[in-house]
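S.,

Sequence below, as promised.
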Amino acid sequence: MTMRLAAAVVVMVVVAAAAMSVEAELSVDYYKKSCPGVENVVRYHVAKALKANRKEGAALVRLIFHDCFVRVVQGCDASVLLDPTPENPHTEKTAPINIGLAAFELIDEIKAAVEERCPGVVSCADIVIYAARDASILLSNGHVHFDVLAGRLDGRVSRAADAQRDLPDSTFTISELIRNFRRKNFTIEELVILSGAHAVGVGHCSSLRARLTAPPEQILPGYRSLLAGKCAAGEDPIVPNNVRDEDPAAVAATIPSFLPKLRKFEFLDNSYYHNNLARIVTFNSDWQLLTEKEARGHVHEYADNGTLWDEDFSDALVKLSKLPLPPKAKGEIRHHCRRVNTHHY
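The prediction came back faster than expected:
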């Protein structure tokens, strides 16, 4: 066994052991006595926000991934919410790979309401998971749903370099994606499942520049023209991740045959897989799923069975949410989600 392989095995064992050790500590009814009704509070604020702007829902779903996927055994600790300070000017949210993260104000609103109800009891890390769950339910019309295991502490460490190292980049090849997910003990199937979240949300043109020159076998020429036109409109514009949420005028000018498939509002479903097979997905990392046999098979599987994807996406979010701070790590219940209770890292 090579040293690199041995190290990879050790990492996977550590991740698996951490998952088993904390699973017993987390529970569905964790706040039943200490803060009864907390989930109703979160649900109310998420529903209100999505009624005003459904894009807030996609931002919440993205937050759970960008929080939980950073650092080998750190897991979901709300480190992505911490603002830069003079002592730590480069927190995770400043990392280039975290460009476009949003819904921070909504998390602040939820945290303030929860603090008013139960001061110093509910962690920001748990609020992120609750909010992502509720956003998934609302965006999918109830098809994606799961019980949240709670009891996490908020972390005190947040480094842009960790996010840049650990999060998968939109430019990754399939081999890089598989290695990246394997480090967190996620399978190729789970890589494909979680990629389906690109059915909602937006992306920055700086994250999809390679698609503007990709050959026709990788991207539908009409969609490439649509993206090129949008990305020429400013320094770094945003475009919908899902072509079904595009501006009808832009679609009419580039891929008019797709007009009947446009949606009136964002919806979390299996449309991502249909789009991928039609070569009309936004990022290189999306198209890369078609270049490996097992991944491609799962893309076909979820394109054919939306109900299966709803169930598997729910399970994948649960797995993603299970790692809180490792044993003996320093954690706390933050008073405010954007800063640690003391300003020392």
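The chain has two domains: 38-167, 174-195+206-319.

Coffee later?
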